[in-house]
Predict the 3D structure of the following.
Amino acid sequence: MINGVNNVSQVNNVQNLRKTESSAKVSRDVDSISVSAEAKEMAEIYYMDKVAKETPDVRADRVAEVKEKLKDPNYLNDAVIKSAADKFLSAIGL
């Protein structure tokens, strides 16, 4: 009788193995999406608008730094003025 119980257990193991093998053979389709160029552009514009709204217009830390530099009479020289002018002209596209 005890041997009979063990045999049933072994049969169950084989049946479970077959179930696992058959379920492993199931093929799955791959999901995909495509986003239009217009949607990508709108997402980029949305992101840039959000960043622009969250960024302060005036950077107080930079203003304070420049004010401190301008207090030094030796700070303003030809090299500093030329550098500032070049940065300004490149910022406006010239």
About this structure: The chain has a mean pLDDT of 79. The two ends are 98 Å apart (CA to CA). Residues 2-24 form the longest helix (23 residues).
